[in-house]
């Protein structure tokens, strides 16, 4: 096994297996479901004993889960922080217990970066920027104003904060483009639909939707259709993620562009976990490789899309 000293391999078992406690955000989106599957499958393949918890998008539940992993003396803790702030205390508890922490997918805003070993995940600012750059390019031929409704991810989460700022930065390039409304849709389909219904009534002049994930875009699509507008035509839609349902909408012409955010973080996470438990130095930041999709590219990619 990896724990040569044999005695205390953590997790309360002495079979030499690494035990990881993973505190997941929830099951809010297709992306999250694919991410959970990736983590569970990769743990199995790597021979890592995984303790998994679902926080239902609540920070207090994640903190509870992390404390229970500390109490169980797991070898390593990994988690995707639902929001960016408020982690210093529990991270300090893990550090005091000598349990390394790896952040996956979402960042924390802790000033003391010694509280975690590594952060593996996407560049969310870049994702927002790519969405905005597509809109700037697409708006070159637009005659009138480009009025954007933005559906933001969970308030206070790293992807919502960063995608909002990346997008805002990119659209500055064209004064025709205006965000007429921006609201939290909590990364879910149901909330995306509900918020879009209200925003469409308040902003009949809107002709573009930027949804910060596919699921909110898919929910909003129902509201757009119910309002008698054609998604992808009367209301252009740009989203982030590129999960199967989003890619299907894109290939069907209902979405116009998707910026990819990869949920397949499991294998790299398990590699990092093994190294860190072995006492090796690991990179502080591991960036995920990602692309973008047009409608044509979605048609090509869809048949072999795994999630
Ligand atoms: O943190 C990643 C984001 O969380 C994904 O873009 C979104 O779909 C998920 O809920």
From TrEMBL:
Instruction: Please tell me whether the keyword Signal is annotated for this protein.
Output: yes
What GO annotations for molecular function exist for this entry? carbohydrate binding
- Periplasmic binding protein domain: residues covered: 26-281
Alphabetical list of InterPro entries matching this protein:
Peripla_BP_I (IPR028082), SBP_2_dom (IPR025997)
Q: Which family does it belong to?
A: Belongs to the bacterial solute-binding protein 2 family.
Q: Does the keyword Cell wall biogenesis/degradation apply?
A: no
Q: Which UniProt keywords apply?
A: Signal
What organism, scientifically named, is this protein from? Answer: Cryptosporangium phraense
**Protein name in the entry:** ABC transporter substrate-binding protein
Primary localisation category: other
Any single Gene Ontology cellular-component annotation: cell envelope
Would you say which domain of life the source belongs to?
A: Bacteria
Annotated localization: Cell envelope
